[in-house]
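Pipeline run #58 for the internal structure catalog. This entry was flagged by the ingest filter as a single-chain record with no existing model, so it goes straight to prediction. Upstream metadata was stripped on purpose; only the residue string is passed forward. Reviewer on rotation: M.T. Logging verbosity set to normal.
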Amino acid sequence: MSRQDWRKMCRNAARAYRHYTNPARALPRAERLQQALAFAIERHHNVVVAQLLSGRFQGGGGDEGALPWEELLERAAVAPSFNRQSGQPPLNVAARSGNERATVMLLEKGLSVTSTTVKLAIQNTTRTAYTLLLRLLEHTAGGQIRDASSLEQALSPLYLSTSSLFFLAAESENIEVMREVLALQPDEGAVARVLGASGATAHPTPLLHMACSNRLRRTLEFVLPLASTALLDQDWGSETPLMVAATSGDLCMTKQLLDRGASVTWSTLPSGEAVLHKVAKSDHPTLEMVELLVERGADPLARTPPVDVQGELLKPAIVNFLLNRGVLDRDSRLHLLALVLSWMSEHGIRDYQSLQTSVLAILRLLLARDPAEWKRLLQGTTDPESIWRLAACNSAAFIRLLVEHGLPLVNPAPSKSPLFLVLQAPAAGLPGKKAANARVLLELGADANEAWTAGIRPIHAVEKGEKELLDALLAHGADINATYGEGRTLLHRQIDAGPQLPRRWLEHLKAKGFDFSLRWRDQSYSEYWQQRHRSGSPLADLHNLVHESTAL
């Protein structure tokens, strides 16, 4: 490269970095030189690197003036592959870019190697990665790296160890460095100690767990033949490497672990959950993963069945596959049913429409298994209330399906009847859900005039604006003027709920036959409204309706 070309390159490098690092003003000349050096190192323009390192450069023009190269080389620069907000000294740039020749030149200038330099050298996955790393460590140790002892001695001043070096290489999938580090170990016991190390001397996460959670397939493929059985089934955070790989949905890594002998029956204590349970509880379980685990020996009947989970995304195809393996041969039918219903009541608020299709399909799968047995269980259950409380929060299709399969509509406690639980259940922000559920119960035979505690009837559970619910109850014989507690009506309860009474709602009540002339404790509705809400003047719409009804 000619001197003219070299100068042109320096100018271009400085111009490019001026834009990235400080667009508001030109950089001092010393910084421009350092940016040019970093640029040349990263692009492997080693002729330029040698020329830049050959002498001192004058500042001038109000810049920093003559600057010793030792100080210039220690400053942080920004190379193209680095985040422009946090630069690296030239030696680190050389290590990260795999520029062995520039590394040697910089070491000859007396630059010191840090743990960051070593880490960046390992992240470089070129064919010369280990050679470059060896040069850095030999420079630190002041001698050659011949065995595990000399390697440990070179790493000690950098606050690193053989295990931590191996884990850094594993994280970067630098197979060459991993192979060479293990080759320096004197025996299989030393290799096992490197692989099994954890904590402050290596990595906070065990090796196989780290590889599986980060989906480092090349690392896993290299390490597995060397891993012991104890390492394969190592418990970390109540999970084995197989559980980590399977719950992430990585079929390839799961197969690798199973082929090596990872246990599919290992379970956590005290919960007893095996890998199949973990997969069923994961965010995105797949049928392929479940089939693979069962094929390799996972028992669907071990402990609580895998369909006995609260995973809101469990797919009908997976449930069907597990049911075909005999999951319902256990005495857990009602428990399974309650859990399926709870998916809807607990998780359906966020994505009700898409979720109900999946969960309803699962419910149908469960009930389709021996309908006669389901009918016997549902009719003979000693605690129908718990099932109804969950069903009340679900859709009308759920309720109809359960009743058709034998869930009784009658409850010994009037205050806990199915219709009561449906009308008292939260609407989950879904307009018309309560009315639809009540309509299904009424069509299936529920009594629209059944008496609850203190004489309250279903009509009294109608809230302001619930026209569909009111119409459904009236269509099945409910009395809109039914009273409780010495003459209170549904309008008294609605006045108690707040001062707002929309005009359209009052007109709808009138159209359905509500009597506004009724009095309670010698008070009209407008007087009762004034008393409850401490207002000197009555609500105009309500007062007019009361006045018209009294005049008639």
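catalog note: Residues 455 and 484 are 5 Å apart (CA to CA).
catalog note: The mean pLDDT is 77.
status: ready for reviewer M.T.
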